[in-house]
């Protein structure tokens, strides 16, 4: 039973709204990452520079997600039926459907999944993530590993139909293996479909990457101690490893019916929703959360630094106030003239001893004009492990 125009248009409007939300989320995360990077460079937080190292790959992840979202909008039946310039030429509409398959199934989705894997793998590296070379090399690896999928989708789109048209060929594939478009009851509108062969190639790719992600996640979980980070890793691994295969499954089931039918539109929308969740979880867990945690750590460091300065100031005031009675009982008669002219000060220093007792931290009282405590000055200390 053909689907009513109202439901088709409603699904199209929902798709456009969800892509707009994904775009705004990605734009916010890009600005947030750039702010974090500029802030740590201007404030000199060198320790936090490690967390801003893969900022280019994080932005690339968002770029692939937005690219995929715009491709999904271009596939919609709503635009083809409502916007007259888009349905003026049947050949142009068929070309758009072919470009959609190559762009999304052959480029955006594999690149996004590969970028997720490389960002997870970067968390296992102890050094090198700060360098700009790591970002350039990782971007090159993402494009290189995506190349086979891109070539396979091109073969399906360009060479596959010619193979089926060859009358001398004895073994022909069913039409739904290679069909990228389907005409509606109105001869002036062409709707996009998903070739089953393209979906099979994407499914093989998703299976390999999912297995790699599970192995990578197990290694990360063995190193993570914080329970909050463990929950985050579990959420990321299981979300990505479930939503991407679900998209492949729904795309494969879409060949059971033709466009403008309930089943086809339902499977196509569920496939879109699955990958949207995959992209959204990846952006939140690998772009927003690391930046937010780093900024929170920076704020915590500021609070601890202010607290330590306040504590040292209070301790100094307390020690200076109690200094006079201690000096009277410990200073020698020869030093009375010196200490009366200049007030004493407090110094903490570590002294190495050759005895078996090891080192100890010494608290000594000496005049500001002296560089070391005299032999007669008292030494108060506590033992520390030998270095």
Question: What would you say this structure looks like, in words?
Answer:
This protein has 387 residues and is mainly α. The chain has helices spanning 5-43, 55-75, 77-82, 90-122, 132-165, 196-223, 227-253, 262-321, 323-330, 336-341, and strands spanning 181-183, 190-192, 345-351, 360-366, 379-383. The strands form two sheets. A three-stranded antiparallel β-sheet has the order 3-4-5, with helices on one face. It has a two-stranded antiparallel ribbon with strand order 1-2. Strand 1 (181-183) and strand 2 form a beta hairpin. Helix 2 runs antiparallel to helix 8 (262-321). The radius of gyration is 33 Å and the shape is globular. It starts with a helix and ends with a strand.
By secondary-structure content and strand pairing, the structural class works out as: mainly alpha
| Apparent shape | globular
DSSP E strands, number: 5
The N- to C-terminal Cα distance equals 82 Å
Q: What is the H/E order?
A: HHHHHEEHHHHHEEE
Tell me about the largest β-sheet: 3 strands, antiparallel
Strand content: 5-15%
How many helices in DSSP terms? 10
Helix-residue proportion: 55-70%
Strand order of the largest sheet: 3-4-5
Q: Taking all residues together, what is the mean pLDDT? A: 75
Residue stretches low in confidence (pLDDT < 50, at least 5 long) are 324-387
The radius of gyration over CA amounts to 33 Å
Oligomer: single chain
């Amino acid at each position: 039973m053909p689907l009513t125009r109202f439901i088709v248009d409603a699904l199209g409007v929902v798709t456009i709204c969800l892509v707009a939300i994904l775009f705004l989320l990605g734009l916010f995360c890009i600005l947030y990452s750039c702010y974090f990077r500029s802030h740590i460079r201007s404030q000199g937080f060198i320790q936090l520079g490690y967390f801003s190292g893969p900022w280019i790959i994080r932005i690339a992840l968002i770029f692939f997600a937005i690219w995929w979202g715009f491709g999904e909008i271009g596939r919609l039946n709503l635009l083809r039926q409502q916007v007259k310039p888009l349905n003026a030429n049947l050949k142009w509409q068929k070309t758009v459907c072919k470009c959609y398959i190559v762009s999304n199934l052959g480029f955006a989705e594999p690149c996004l999944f590969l970028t997720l894997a490389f960002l997870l793998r970067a968390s296992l590296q102890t050094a090198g993530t700060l360098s700009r070379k790591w970002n350039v090399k990782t971007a090159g690896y993402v494009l290189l590993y995506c190349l086979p999928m891109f070539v396979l989708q091109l073969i399906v789109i360009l060479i596959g139909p010619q193979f089926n048209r060859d009358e001398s060929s004895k073994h022909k594939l069913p039409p739904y293996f290679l069909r990228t478009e389907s005409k509606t009851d109105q001869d002036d509108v062409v709707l996009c479909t998903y070739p089953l062969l393209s979906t099979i190639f994407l499914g093989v790719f998703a299976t390999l990457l999912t297995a790699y992600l599970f192995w990578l996640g197990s290694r990360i979980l063995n190193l993570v101690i914080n329970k909050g980070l463990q929950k985050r890793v579990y959420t990321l691994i299981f979300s990505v490893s479930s939503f991407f295969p679900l998209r492949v499954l729904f795309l494969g089931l879409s060949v059971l019916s033709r466009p403008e039918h309930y089943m086809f539109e339902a499977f196509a929308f569920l496939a879109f929703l699955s990958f949207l969740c995959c992209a959204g979880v990846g952006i939140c867990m690998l772009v927003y959360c690391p930046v937010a945690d780093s900024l929170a750590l920076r704020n915590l460091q500021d609070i601890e630094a202010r607290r330590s300065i306040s504590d040292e100031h209070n301790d100094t005031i307390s020690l200076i106030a109690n200094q006079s009675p201690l000096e009277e009982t410990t200073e020698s008669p020869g030093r009375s003239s010196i200490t009366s002219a200049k007030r004493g000060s407090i110094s903490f220093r570590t002294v190495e001893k050759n005895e078996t007792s090891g080192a100890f931290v010494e608290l000594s009282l000496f005049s500001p004009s002296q560089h070391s405590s005299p032999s007669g000055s008292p030494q108060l200390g506590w033992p520390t492990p030998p270095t």
